[in-house]
Every structure is written in structure tokens, then in C-alpha cells.
């Protein structure tokens, strides 16, 4: 499997600042933030699945536009995967005929442009070619999951937005072939209380998180807030554990 970073910022505000979107091979999105908007039409047309970590706007903003753009040109619906609560939020507050049309009933319910597929924590979804994606527990201010991507050459875990989470750490430690761990760190330590309140990580909490990891992945940092990104990275660089976390960036490709 191959993952390409389309967006990994915790906000907007400058050239290259795109919110969370990860393209797996050429047909699967993990979250669909503003980074999806940089793809060409032919690239958008290839996307068959969107796995959503949670329903916050920076992670789902481009799903409505994606479906609207390519729906009529496809022979099969785009499938959006997520927890029951995440899908309920999308149905109730996005695809509700008020904010956006309900593409799960367009052109009709028997032949829609969009289909929702509930995914429970621990459940594995096969997406063809021997590839699997497993929902892992995460801890955020709304129901959220992380994702474990299983390829023939190893595994990758994307934390999504999460606070320190023992169940997530346990799930990560159960993956012996983990090659890459993408983990969020939104705020610097000066905003430790804000990180706790909003259920994000800061460098000191990231250190606690990484110190509990027993497997040996390469660690990548995502979801840095643009105004504090360099400060946060400088603090992460002071980590003295066995990992050397590096910043994720748009265009980076990870193979596994």
C-alpha cells in the first residue's frame, strides 16, 4: 500500500496549509479535509472509499464537494465509512437538504451517488487487493476512531484527532509489523490546558504517549496548528525517548 499526504495542517492561513486528507493508493481517502481540493478531476473520479475519523469540519469538508463533482460520472456510489455517531452527524447536519443535498438518495435510493457504511471499533473492512482497514479506539470531544491500514508489506496507523488514550496505545502495541505511526500534536505545551480541554495532544502528552509504545514504527506528527507549528516542533525535538518524530508534510508518500 502507498499513502500520499494531501493535507496535514490543523488549520488554514497560508500557501500549502491544507487540512487533513490522506490518499491511499489512488482509490481510498482517510478523512477528506481541504487537501482533497488539490486533486484533478480524474484523480477524484478514482476515489471509491472515504474513511472518516470523526465529523469535525476540517476532516470532512470536501466530502460534499467530492460527491457532487464526480457522482454523475461514476457507475458506483462513493462509500463513506465511519462510526454510527459520525455517520449520524453527517446525515443530520451535512447531507440534510439544508446545508447540502442528500446524495444518498440522488438520483434515487436504489442508485445513489453516496452510500454510508457503519464501522465499529475493532472491525476490519476489506477494500480489495488484499488491503484491510481496521477502526481503532480514539479519544476526542466527539466520537472518533483511529485507523490501522494493513498492507502486504506492513501496517500504518493514523491516530486521527485524539487525546492520550490507553486503549489506542494497547491497539498500537498489538501490531507487530507497524511501519508508520501518524499521530497528532495540535498545540505547544504553553497551551497544555487547551489541549486537555479539546482532547488533543501537546508535546508533553505526546511524550507520555510515545513512551508507552512497544513496537517500532517511524513516527510522523500531524495536525499542527499553523500559528504555533514551529514552537510545537521545537518542543517535540526535545523528546528524549527512543523515537525521533518527524513532521508530516503535503506530498509525502509512505509505503507499507
TrEMBL record:
One GO term of the biological process aspect: cAMP catabolic process
Domain Metallo-beta-lactamase span(s) in chain numbering: 18-205
SUPFAM superfamilies xref list: Metallo-hydrolase/oxidoreductase (SSF56281)
Recorded superkingdom: Bacteria
CDD domains referenced in this protein's UniProt entry, alphabetically: class_II_PDE_MBL-fold
Name of the protein described by the UniProt record: cAMP phosphodiesterase class-II:metallo-beta-lactamase superfamily protein
Source species: Zoogloea ramigera
Transmembrane segments: none
Coiled-coil regions, chain positions: none
Amino acid at each position: 500500500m502507498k499513502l500520499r499526504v494531501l493535507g496535514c495542517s490543523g488549520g488554514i492561513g497560508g500557501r500549502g496549509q491544507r487540512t487533513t486528507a490522506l490518499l491511499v493508493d489512488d482509490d481510498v481517502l482517510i478523512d477528506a479535509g481541504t487537501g482533497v481540493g488539490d486533486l484533478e478531476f480524474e484523480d477524484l473520479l478514482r476515489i471509491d472509499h472515504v474513511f472518516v475519523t470523526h465529523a469535525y469540519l476540517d476532516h470532512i469538508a470536501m466530502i460534499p464537494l467530492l460527491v457532487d463533482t464526480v457522482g454523475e460520472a461514476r457507475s458506483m456510489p462513493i462509500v463513506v465509512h465511519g462510526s454510527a455517531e459520525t455517520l449520524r452527524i453527517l446525515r443530520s447536519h451535512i447531507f440534510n437538504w439544508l446545508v447540502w443535498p442528500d446524495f444518498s438518495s440522488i438520483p434515487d435510493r436504489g442508485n445513489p451517488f453516496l452510500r454510508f457504511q457503519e464501522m465499529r471499533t475493532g472491525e476490519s473492512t476489506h477494500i480489495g487487493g488484499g488491503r484491510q482497514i481496521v477502526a481503532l479506539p480514539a479519544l476526542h470531544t466527539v466520537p472518533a476512531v483511529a485507523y490501522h491500514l494493513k498492507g502486504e508489506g506492513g501496517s500504518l496507523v493514523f491516530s486521527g484527532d485524539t487525546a492520550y488514550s490507553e486503549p489506542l496505545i494497547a491497539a498500537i502495541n498489538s501490531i507487530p509489523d507497524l511501519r508508520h505511526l501518524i499521530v497528532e500534536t495540535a498545540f505547544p505545551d504553553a497551551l497544555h490546558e487547551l489541549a486537555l480541554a479539546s482532547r488533543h495532544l501537546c508535546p508533553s502528552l505526546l511524550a507520555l504517549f510515545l513512551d508507552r509504545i512497544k513496537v517500532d514504527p517511524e513516527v510522523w506528527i500531524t495536525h499542527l496548528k499553523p500559528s504555533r507549528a514551529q514552537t510545537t516542533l521545537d518542543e517535540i525535538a526535545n523528546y528524549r525517548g527512543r523515537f525521533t518524530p518527524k513532521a508530516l508534510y503535503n506530498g509525502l508518500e509512505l509505503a507499507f
